[in-house]
Amino acid sequence: MSTLTIDKAGPTRKVKYGSMSRDRAWALRWSYFFLVLFAIFFLTPPLYMLITSLKSSAEISAATNPWWVFHPTLSNYIELLSSNQFLRFFWNSAIVSTVVVIITMLISVPAAFALARMKFWGSATLATGVFLTYLVPDSLLFIPLFKMLALVQDYTGITLLNRWYVLLFVYPTLTVPFCTWIMIGYFASIPKELDEAAIIDGASWLQTLLRIFIPVALPGLIAATIFAFTVSWAQFLYPLVFTTSVDQLVLPVGITTTLIKGDVFNWGQIMTGALLGAAPPLIIYAFLMDYYIAGLTAGATKG
Amino acid sequence: MADVVVEQGRLGSSARPRKGAGLRNVLGRKSTVAFFLTLPLILLIALLVLYPALYSIHLATLNKSMQKFVGLGNFTFLFKRDTFWMVVKQSCIFALTAVFFKALIGFIVAHFVNNVPAKKQRKWRGMLLVPWVIPPAMSTLAWLWLFDPSYSAFNYTLSFFGIGPVNWLGDTFWARFSVILVNVWYGAPFFLIMYLAALKSVPDQLYEAASIDGANWWQKMWYVTLPMMRNIIAITTLFSLIVTFANFDIVRILTSGGPLDKTHLFATWAFKVGIEGSDIPLGASVSLFMVPILAIAAIFILRDVSKRGNEA
């Protein structure tokens, strides 16, 4: 009797295991199937940019199969990269983004250090304030900022509107709060013993920051730098409002305003410009994906 | 013993001159250092965020030439305009629908990625995050070209299925659909990454315990996964709600608010009225209507974030 039950239990168990692994295999197959579908959805626009950028205007207007390049040509790239105007946009974008990254780091790293390690009057309120500032969108501030800049011009005679360097003042409002916030998180996770040991050894606060905190929190620093760069590179509303002359524009605004001339859309060039404009963040992302993702998830989950 | 005495004496002598230099003492004090380290941050927030925010309230009470105080005149003027109420409705439809689908797609795809063997997850994650990396102004141009009325790649593809040419950006329904679609495309990867991180933080033991207790797939999802992810889902959704509600780039490039203002959001309409129409006070009043929704979302986010902080 007892042997019978054991015999019975054996095969049923085996069958169950078999069906479970078969379920697993099917789940995996379905996962891949849907992942491919979603990957197509997510990657269609960038691929379509690439396809169109390789076409001549004649091929685009010939209304052939839009998903295929019959006569690939690099003429769009050559034309854009030899156009002074486009290079000017690229240069403006590059210099604005680089300087904004430097300003952001100079402001947010010391502030994050103070907020994470030196408890002083109002430090908790200030940390909350930084987080709230991060939630204030650009579309709320562009009108008062525009008027403020115009008033500065009226009172002091310093021309800020319609100059590319005005962006150096307004972009940090978008980058500094977030960078400070994630740097507070990274600094707070450094064990207290480390900086206490440094202070006992006679290090000043500045030395503690430069010699201990920055090297230890380097991954956070890289994540913050990437964030600041991509945000300033992608910003569209502020340059659209604050700059109008062609030689003062940055890439996103330059492409959308100058390549679209009235009703004539030169799609080959627009797509090439868009692809070249998307290239720097994409390249950074390709090489530093883990830092990029760390910054992304740290921002909303670190308390 | 003698050594100790000598050392004490040395310590005392080195401390004495410092007491004399009052200014240096103040500069070396912790709170003073902290003040100087945070000063640039405080100045930036005060001058370029806080002041403009308050200034826009002041601007909203002026007349078009900004010389006369009109109190709530701009607001009563807006309340009487149909376009304004349409913008309110559209902003709500846009934000709620887009956030819902972003969260849904992010949640589903996060599960698929999590199912795949760990080695291949990196590759898939890398591919699926691309829309979030491309500057939205650039990728929206690609969508604009995909939606193009005469050479539209979408209509070309649909024609093989016998579906007539769709007027993507010219028809009210399809224009709203397209704008939301592009926003979902752009934002879903963010949810995917957040949810994937949350999924990975759920301990395996919980699932094992649930399996031993005989829980099926739905029960595991409902009683283990969702409660463990609740906090991240809440924060991500509220955060995305703010960003989506204040969206500008996508609508501006895709439709510029058209056809007949049927896709305008607060941000794009404020731009049209305030900058293009050069009625700055009215534009400021329009953008101020974003504040209540943003404030509510911000309060909830802050509550969740501090709750997480206490737990950790």
Automatic annotation (TrEMBL), chain A:
This is Carbohydrate ABC transporter permease. InterPro entries: BP-dep_ABC_trans_perm (IPR050901), MetI-like (IPR000515), MetI-like_sf (IPR035906). It comes from the Bacteria. It holds the Pfam family BPD_transp_1. Belongs to the binding-protein-dependent transport system permease family. It is found in: Cell membrane. Signal peptide: none annotated. Keywords: Cell membrane, Membrane, Transmembrane, Transmembrane helix, Transport. The chain crosses the membrane at residues 30-51, 89-113, 120-144, 164-188, 209-230, 272-294. The keyword Membrane applies. Residues 90-288 form the ABC transmembrane type-1 domain. CDD domains: TM_PBP2. It is a multi-pass membrane protein. The keyword GTP-binding does not apply.
TrEMBL record, chain B:
It is a multi-pass membrane protein. It holds the Pfam family BPD_transp_1. The keyword Coiled coil does not apply. The chain crosses the membrane at residues 33-54, 93-114, 126-146, 173-197, 228-248, 280-302. It is found in: Cell membrane. Residues 88-303 form the ABC transmembrane type-1 domain. Keywords: Cell membrane, Membrane, Transmembrane, Transmembrane helix, Transport. Belongs to the binding-protein-dependent transport system permease family. This is Sugar ABC transporter permease.
